[in-house]
């Protein structure tokens, strides 16, 4: 069973209220829980990913001393008649670079490895934000990236081995990916130094300088969950877009008019913004709008998706692939919003839709029984969602 990262590892409400985005903290594993992340990514699984995927830079890269190693140092150029040429990593050359101190990085591994994908779906559902997971493998005490900061909050999961960390803290509060200035000078001295062992977790807020290196003599494998942030700039950008519904916001700026006309226009714009920002529900409205527009993760359902109708098979696995779907209940109806689409069903369908939105693994038969309908009736509803791309059926 997949571990509940927020509750079982990070401390649930305490992490959300006190740590996330505010301070760094280590969440140590008990001696009996050193293998609690082993099911996310074992070395054989990493080897299969490297063997069976066409991983080109920057998706797969090697880094040492803060610099990216040229692909010519560990790849061989391959050409094809019907595909673009690519630089194929050579296992023996990659291994040599790793022996010499390089760190191997595999970006967005959740898109390729179902156990990590399932964890990401749960994180996105809980935190209401986009999550990307990168895998890092290293063997020596040489730092792959040097002292640096990230423009997003980070949760680090030490899968195996050990990693030495130095935390320096922030120099610019809440830096952005698109910012007006950047601070490239790290603090001189760290505020904390420690070693993560297998099973330990770490949170580092965005903008906090840090550096990491493997403990000499044992391979280190860790996952970094990058959490996209929701900033005031994001909310204001959404709010300005939403104000396109107002004729006065769509009207021309009166730049050729007299001062009284310009003053009246500024007052009207200020009033529009103030009314929206003073709404106590504005933050949740913004998050819900982002949730309902958020896309899907995976969802291929061959051969079933090509057929005219799903099979009336009670054991058919069904899963939602829109992790941030929103469910709204009314007296007579239930409305599902996901991936920019909306469906309204009768109240009888509520248990079925609620089970889907929960993210739990389920089957056609379980969904039908929960809604007290036949599997044939459940298929009628699920066919709509399958053709809209927000559920998948069959084995993942």
From TrEMBL:
Cofactor(s) the protein requires to work: Fe(2+)
Taxonomic superkingdom: Bacteria
Pfam hit, one: JmjC_2
Keywords, sorted A to Z: Iron, Metal-binding
Domain JmjC: 86-244
Gene3D superfamilies: Cupin
PROSITE patterns in alphabetical order: JMJC (PS51184)
Transmembrane residue ranges: none
Protein known as: JmjC domain-containing protein
Organism: Actinomadura violacea
């Amino acid at each position: 069973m997949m571990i509940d990262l927020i509750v079982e590892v990070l401390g649930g409400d305490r992490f959300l209220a006190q740590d996330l985005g505010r301070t760094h903290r280590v969440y140590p594993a008990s001696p009996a829980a050193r293998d609690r992340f082993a099911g996310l990514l074992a070395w054989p699984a990493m080897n299969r990913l490297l063997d069976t995927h066409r991983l080109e830079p920057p998706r797969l890269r090697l880094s040492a001393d803060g610099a990216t190693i040229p692909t010519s140092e560990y790849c061989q150029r391959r050409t094809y008649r019907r595909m673009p040429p690519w630089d194929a990593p050579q296992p023996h050359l990659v291994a040599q670079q790793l022996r010499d101190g390089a760190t191997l990085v595999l970006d967005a591994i959740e898109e390729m490895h179902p156990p990590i994908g399932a964890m990401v779906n749960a994180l996105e559902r809980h935190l209401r934000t986009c999550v990307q997971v990168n895998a890092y493998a290293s063997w020596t005490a040489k730092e792959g990236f040097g002292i640096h900061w990230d423009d997003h909050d980070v949760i680090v999961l030490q899968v195996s081995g050990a990693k030495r960390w130095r935390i320096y803290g922030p120099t610019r509060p809440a830096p952005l990916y698109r910012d007006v200035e950047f601070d490239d000078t790290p603090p001189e001295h760290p505020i904390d130094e420690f070693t993560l062992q297998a099973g330990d977790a770490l949170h580092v807020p965005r903008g906090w300088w840090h550096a990491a290196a493997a403990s000499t003599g044992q391979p280190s494998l860790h996952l970094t969950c990058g959490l996209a942030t929701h900033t005031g700039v994001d909310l204001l950008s959404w709010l300005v877009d939403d104000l396109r519904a107002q004729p006065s916001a769509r009207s021309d700026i009166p730049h050729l008019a007299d001062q009284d006309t310009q003053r009246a226009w500024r007052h009207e714009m200020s009033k529009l913004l103030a009314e929206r920002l003073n709404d106590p529900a504005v933050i949740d409205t913004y998050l819900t709008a982002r949730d309902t527009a958020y896309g899907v993760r995976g969802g291929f359902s061959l051969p079933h998706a090509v057929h005219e109708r799903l099979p009336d098979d009670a054991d058919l696995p069904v899963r939602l692939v829109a992790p941030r779907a929103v469910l709204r209940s009314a007296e007579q109806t239930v409305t599902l919003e996901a991936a920019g689409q909306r469906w309204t069903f009768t109240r009888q369908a509520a248990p079925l839709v609620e089970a889907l939105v929960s993210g739990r693994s389920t089957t056609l038969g379980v969904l039908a029984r929960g809604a007290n309908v036949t599997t044939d009736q459940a298929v009628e509803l699920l066919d709509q969602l399958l053709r809209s791309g927000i559920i998948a059926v069959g084995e993942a």
